[in-house]
Amino acid sequence: MRKFALTAIAAAFALTAFTGTSQASGDAPVPKAQDWSWQGLFGTYDRAQLQRGFQVYKGICAGCHSLRFIAFRNLEGIGFNEDQIKAIAAEYDIEDGPNDDGDMFTRPGKPSDYFPSPFPNDKAAAASNGGSIPPDLSLMAKARMHGPDYVVALLTGYEEEAPEGFDLAEGKHYNHYFPGHQISMAPPLYDEAVEYTDGTPMTLEQHAHDVVAFLNWTAQPELEARKALGLKVLLFLIVLTAMLYAVKRKIWRDIEH
Amino acid sequence: MSAPVWNNKVVKWVDDRLPVFSMLHHSAYEYPTPKNLSYMWNFGSLAGFVLVTMILTGIFLVMNYTPHTDMAFDSVERIMRDVNYGWLIRYMHVNGASMFFICVYIHIFRGLYYGSYKAPREMLWWIGILILLAMMATAFMGYVLPWGQMSFWGATVITNLFSAFPIVGEPLVHWLWGGFSIGNPTLNRFFSLHYLLPFVILGLVVLHVWALHTVRSNNPTGVEAKTPQDSIPFHPYYTIKDLFGMGIFLIFFLFFVFFAPDFFGEPDNYIPANPLVTPPHIVPEWYFLPFYAILRSIDFSIFGVPAKLLGVLAMFASIVVLFVIPWLDTSKVRSSKYRPVYKWFFLILFIDCFILGYCGKKAPDDYFMGIEGLHVIVMGQLATLYYFAHFLVVMPIVGKLERPKPLPASISESVLKGGANA
Amino acid sequence: MSQTVQSSGDHAPDENRRDFLILATTAVGVVGTGMALWPFVDSMNASKDVLALASVEVSLSNIPVGQAIKVMWRGKPVFIRHRTEREIKEADDVALNELVDPQTDDARVEKKEWLILVGVCTHLGCIPMGTATGETRGDYDGWYCPCHGSHYDTSGRIRKGPAPLNLEVPTYSFLTDTSVKIG
């Protein structure tokens, strides 16, 4: 009987496991798995890396990509204090209104404001970008297969010349990891794209990792709280379950079963 | 079964007028349960526990969710980011759906293996299938609510199934949508029904338990309890066993919630719905994959009936066939433990369902597990063929031809003799 | 449940151990269930985005002496009245022992000419009349709540009627002479 059940379970798992691993769709290669500070049961974000990533987002990505689920007040999560947040917010012009005269006006940002979109609407975004709308980045790190690994691969996967015989359309760029290889976004990052002040090497690789770490935070700001609570909850449940097992043994002691 | 004596005056006063306490006493305390139930019998109560969890988390999600195509996605993100513990409640609800199906599928396979559908438990079995159907409808409509890309396109594909029916097809689909495509009216009605159906499921569960307590629990031997020695009271023996199982289950469930919350999900559903772009690879949630494979495997027409309609019919038939198995199974023995031949067919069916699931996940033109020349669509067709053959051919024939092993005279006897292999 | 449980005295010391184990497990289980309910309760508290909007800035330059405006703050109206000399004097001249909820006018304002109040009647939450020009201001030249007839004076203090407390003063600070931040 036991053997029988084991056969069934083994077969089932073999199939399930196989479904998981060979998911590469189309002709894009599987991105290389990266080491991230937030992996594992005890993983946390590296605040310094998130701030560098924010610097990259602000200096490079924000020109075309919105971050509409993030408010300035959220930056507390990457280690900025209240005054720093106020200063960052004040750098942005936010449209507000209508005022008492019925007109819309712009004012400096406040911590409760959200990051403004670089374009007033999707049509404007498409018009400025050769017909493609730059996607919002708030959830990018979990909105693609292989998540952060994919985004790093994409940012570093450009090729200056398309391979021999590849028909690259006008205004497109060749990227190994983009489905179909033709991407509208020009290579956004390069060595020394932004100036780090903490001595971290300013390489393309490093910029890409930092900005993706930041984007993983924008996608999962709850990650650290989630894992911390999870450890406590699981520990509690293991104790409780062990106690329940002991009670079960006691109660069933006199029963032949 | 003696009527309980209530010492507490308030309890007695209430019970004399509405015997709720007596009812609880009979069904959750004194209920005579076979003493040889294995841990496979834990999954019914676990499924009930998940149902309660889903209703509870769902009620609290609704307090912050907005059922409008312009706001649904953002309101879900607000739950994840701004509502206190919103991420926890939502991730419990999302993973709870998968847990519900895990419990229920194990529960169903247990019933199939031990012949729990056979007389006199047909009604019990039927109500169970109705619960499964209601769960599927609920899960499908719930998946639409966050209004991501998979929500939108999953809804489009599944509702389009109904367009397969001749003549009524198109009006039916437009009626389901409340327009010419999936839109705000669709989202609103799905939300309404997604809130309603869990309570229908709850009602069906009450009937399920009622039927169970009328015909009593089956057990691993499939031999009915005959003497008082065969049974033990539900409380404390099975309450504690269920609670222990619940502890194990919660560790499993909450591990996903806290450490791999998106494990069962699709990344595309974190992209807001866009009616102009279909994601390159649409797959349903894992619990629908076997049915999706059956649907897709019919790529040919028979006697002029188009493939699309046949696929839809095959998919519905794969569940309808479960209603008739109490009569398709001709064996005199319930439990597969004593059925040396059928046991192996059961194993094939079990693996077959996983093969179907695999095929549902893959693109039809992929190779099955990388085997050169064996396309997923072909494997899906073979698996579909076996699925139906199992119930329509194997069950009646094996039941007639097979010579079962000798049954124990009673549950007590099997416990005393074969404690080792139970 | 009050059902008598059949207890056998066969192995008494063991029974005790079993009882203790069951008691301890029940206690842990109950505590766990209690803690599990907290996230649900807390999810109904004000969320982070709501808390972030807890302050507004108002320009005072458009309010002539003797008039008042209403602004929204935390979903409630705030009355800002530019008081006249007479109104200020009226508020100062009241003896504290005449008041239901004794408070000096000085304790209720930062600048004498500006009276800033949460415009919600302390009785049952209606909005008192008296802010817009021409509305009745009640017997004490302040506000009058039409729901149950509470009269407030020129400092927003309750003078007559069922309301138990003075109109609440929100936390605020003057950013400049003509602009104030509420909250």
From TrEMBL, chain A:
Gene3D superfamilies for this protein: Cytochrome c-like domain, Cytochrome c1, transmembrane anchor, C-terminal
Domain Cytochrome c: 48-201
Pfam families: Cytochrom_C1 (PF02167)
Keyword entries, A-Z: Electron transport, Heme, Iron, Membrane, Metal-binding, Respiratory chain, Signal, Transmembrane, Transmembrane helix, Transport
Record has Membrane as a keyword: yes
InterPro entries, sorted: Cyt_c-like_dom, Cyt_c-like_dom_sf, Cyt_c1, Cyt_c1_TM_anchor_C
GO molecular function, one term: metal ion binding
Domain of life: Bacteria
Residue ranges of the TM segments: 229-247
Cofactor: heme c
Binding site for heme c: 61, 64-65, 185
A cellular-component GO term for this protein: membrane
Binding note for cofactor: Binds 1 heme c group covalently per subunit.
SUPFAM superfamilies associated with the record: Cytochrome c, Cytochrome c1 subunit of cytochrome bc1 complex (Ubiquinol-cytochrome c reductase), transmembrane anchor
Family: Belongs to the cytochrome c family.
Name of the protein in question: Cytochrome c1
Native source organism of the sequence: Thalassospira alkalitolerans
Source taxonomy: Bacteria, Pseudomonadati, Pseudomonadota, Alphaproteobacteria, Rhodospirillales
From TrEMBL, chain B:
Protein name per UniProt: Cytochrome b
Residues bound to heme b b562: 93, 194
Record-linked Pfam families: Cytochrom_B_C (PF00032), Cytochrome_B (PF00033)
Summary of subunit composition and partner proteins: The main subunits of complex b-c1 are: cytochrome b, cytochrome c1 and the Rieske protein.
Binding-site positions, a ubiquinone: 213
Transmembrane segments: 39-66, 87-108, 123-145, 152-173, 193-212, 243-260, 309-328, 340-358, 378-398
Cofactor binding mode and count: Binds 2 heme groups non-covalently.
Ranges of residues in domain Cytochrome b/b6 N-terminal region profile: 10-221
TrEMBL record, chain C:
Top EC class of this enzyme: translocase
Main location: membrane
Keywords of the record: 2Fe-2S, Cell membrane, Disulfide bond, Electron transport, Iron, Iron-sulfur, Membrane, Metal-binding, Translocase, Transmembrane, Transmembrane helix, Transport
Annotated membrane topology: Single-pass membrane protein
Catalytic reactions of this protein: a quinol + 2 Fe(III)-[cytochrome c](out) = a quinone + 2 Fe(II)-[cytochrome c](out) + 2 H(+)(out)
Keyword S-adenosyl-L-methionine assigned: no
Comment on bound cofactor: Binds 1 [2Fe-2S] cluster per subunit.
Transmembrane segments: 20-41
SUPFAM superfamilies from the UniProt entry: ISP domain
Annotated Gene3D superfamilies: Rieske [2Fe-2S] iron-sulphur domain (2.102.10.10), Single helix bin (1.20.5.510)
Cofactor(s) for this UniProt protein: [2Fe-2S] cluster
EC id: 7.1.1.8
PROSITE patterns reported for this sequence: RIESKE (PS51296), TAT (PS51318)
Pfam families linked to this entry: Rieske (PF00355), UCR_Fe-S_N (PF10399)
Summary of subunit composition and partner proteins: The main subunits of complex b-c1 are: cytochrome b, cytochrome c1 and the Rieske protein.
Family per similarity comment: Belongs to the Rieske iron-sulfur protein family.
Function: Component of the ubiquinol-cytochrome c reductase complex (complex III or cytochrome b-c1 complex), which is a respiratory chain that generates an electrochemical potential coupled to ATP synthesis.
Entry protein name: Ubiquinol-cytochrome c reductase iron-sulfur subunit
